[in-house]
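Q: Give me the 3D complex with phosphoenolpyruvate.
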Amino acid sequence: MKSRIKYMKFSECSQKGGRMNAAKRIEKKQLAEIDMHGREQKPIEPLLERMPRIKINDTYYYENRFFVIAGPCSVENREQMEKVGETFKEIKGIVEGFSGILVLRGGAYKPRTSPRSFQGLGEEGLKLLKEIKDAVGMPIVSEIVDPRHVELFAKYDLDILQIGARNAQNYELIREAARSMKPILLKRGMAEGLTEWLGAAQYILEEGNEQVILCERGIKAGANDGFTRNVLDLPTALLAKEANLPVIIDPSHATGRVDLIKQLSHLIALSNLDGIMIEAHPSPREALSDRNQQLTLEELADLIEDIAQLREIYYKLNTLNNKDLKPIGAIEYNAQQL
Ligand code: PEP
Ligand code: MN
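A: Here is the predicted complex, encoded as structure tokens.
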């Protein structure tokens, strides 16, 4: 597996004759540091030669797909998750209609600021996620907080492993999760710069696992005065894409408020970014964690309809501009075809 990773440092590429293509590409990038008008831009070093395919079950998802990851902050009980499952049945077709990838989220192990806050249902939470996955038929993601849990996540058939903001530089956890060879949803740490965020991603790649999805979820910044939970750093998220990894946005944790989550999701649906992660709960008022930032299931369904329309506009705009976007529906291949 390790040999699939293309090490992209220009110095290394030029030393090793066999990697001339990579070297040429990098050379172009380096020249682009100073453009024809003499403007200098700090270049981002790609971590992969091209965007990875994300493999879920036997399907490889290619570039230009839009992840819609949604669900409660925490898995709390069966009734809650069954209600979420009902909504997922409704929105699944809509997301598939715009070639999106609908994924159910829910925290089973919750890294909370206070040890007295709800810590998650643990294994029982994973079990409930798996039940809804089987009933509705969509991939599931949950946060892993302990390297010893990798097997447990495999037992309950988790499709994507999430590394949370609090563990964004917990390299032993990251390495162990990467070795599962499942896609890794890597959140940006609360105070991480781009170098540290991509450094954490590289730990996953070094294990021979190219399936990394980066997630910007807002950072701590001095000017935040309580109206918003964190500061959403969209420019850095856009720059992170230059590393040739898909980047999604979590406006729920970034802002902590539903009015902004909806507006930001609209903007993201029209952008070059690769998806969103949204918290939603059947009755947010009773949620055991993050109650202020969870959409109701009705609000989630409405938002998905908006996103469907906006993605159509996005595809049309890019086709008009002759961007290399493959047409809707033509980007999914069966594993056997590869
Ligand atoms: C979460 O997504 O449930 C979560 C805890 O997010 P973060 O790690 O970004 O705080
Ligand atoms: Mn949360």
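A quick observation: Confidence is low (pLDDT under 50) at residues 1-26, 326-338.
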